[in-house]
Amino acid sequence: MNFDIQDIEKPSRNSPLTITYRPVEDLTPDPRNARTHPKRQIEQLKSAIASFGFTNPILIDEGDALIAGHGRLRAARDI
Fold first, then answer.
1. Backbone dihedral region of 69: left (phi > 0), alpha (psi from -120 to 50 degrees) or beta?
2. Mean pLDDT over residues 56-61, rounded?
3. In what residue span(s) does the ParB-like N-terminal domain sit (predicted)?
């Protein structure tokens, strides 16, 4: 798969981001995610989410593919 930086669309000021609350059961981790999250890190995330809520949201694209937040998703599922 070839990637060309010219193919990236620049965000439009007329298309704001939207926030949608979704059940964690509806979100599917990307199996190609290269990052791993040790149990200790997941425990820290669980503690932070329980104390402060989601201060950094899980990001998905328009096709519901997880972009960022694989560790937060694991932690949220464990809470």
1. left
2. 87
3. 23-77
